[in-house]
Amino acid sequence: MPSVQASIAAPPAAIDDGAPDLRARFVAVRARTCALAAPLSAEDAQLQSMADASPAKWHLAHTTWFFARFVLGRRGEPPIPDGWDYLFNSYYVGAGARHPRASRGLVSRPTLAEVLAWRDAIDERVIALLDAGHLDAGARDVLLLGTHHEQQHQELLLTDIKHAFWCNPLAPAYHPGAAASAPRAPAAAAGPVRWLARDEAITELGAAPWPSGAFAFDNETPRHRALVPAHALASRAVSNAEFAAFVDDGGYATPTLWLSDGWELAAREGWQRPLYWHADGAREFTLAGWQERHPHAPVCHLSHYEADAFARWAGARLPTEAEWELAAAGLAVEGDFADGAAFHPRAQDAHGDGPHGMFGGTWEWTSSAYAPYPGFRPLAGTLGEYNGKFMSGQLVLRGGSCATPRDHARVSYRNFFPPSARWQFSGVRLARDPG
Predict the structure, then answer these.
(1) Of 167, 199, 234, which residue sits at a domain end?
(2) 362, 401 in Cβ contact below 8 A?
């Protein structure tokens, strides 16, 4: 693969959204994507192992297409080679026709080298316009949005190649040194779950509309008041050992624990354990290849159906996103993020007061449908397709994962996936009602 300018071991420093140097953020984010793709061969970058995933080459091209179409395109005809507009659009109907998502792995041309050369050319044009002061305020806003869009694709690049490598009988490692370079996990258990009780309260949730406030996607806005009933939230996420007890107790064979759609899907697909758990009961597939499963690390790669079934088995339920955000408000956004290059959730010391591990490690499923907040307004024009049109049939996850860039996470962030999704680093934190 052509050389890149950053390394996984030493990623570019995080750039705060509030910093005046948008140029530095753009350069850092673009370099980070190439760094994440650097361990992949051209053959690796072509893989698409399922319809929900995309090839790494497509991620590299699509994120470039975004800047060409929506930033440079504001100044006239966007610099997109013939036919590439069709290939690398994702779901922006207003931007024109699109190649079928499930067939992205069939696009062997353009080559990876051609895609990377195009990235360089677009980056040069964007930086030249920034340096010359030729991007107006609207274009600069879209440029900042584009860097956050690209960080979402950085996470997808990791989760998608993990699934592709898991499908390979040779079980190749994306980054063999990740496990060895990760800090040693605590030898002892993280401690028993404590239940953090809260009385009924009216609170404020969400984010102020951007760009008047700090950056936030439109689906996080507006900030609004909400009534949060009395509840208790678990002090930490569910561990591998705890989920293994559910498996051993016949959790996947007990229909009364499952939502109907989930039970039918699990039976049809033959689910007997979380995605990437080995049948030997001891190992799990990671981006560093097959590794011994740490009993006290957060369980991950659960669908919403599995998370919900576990919660019923445990005599609890999934939290609402309001309960989750109320608990996270005021906490530092610190955790096991992609910047540490471990690319897998690690056991944490969860002793002490307050909730632990709210950020990083695994995304945490909530019971909340992905729906608009009161007063929600999507972005104007084609960019309004970014989030709002997916507000049907999906559920909200919170907190970020070990594949999420640190400066991309925040308290109000609303991730969303259909309840069947398992290939993301998705886990579970329990909640329960009083009494």
Answers:
(1) 167
(2) yes
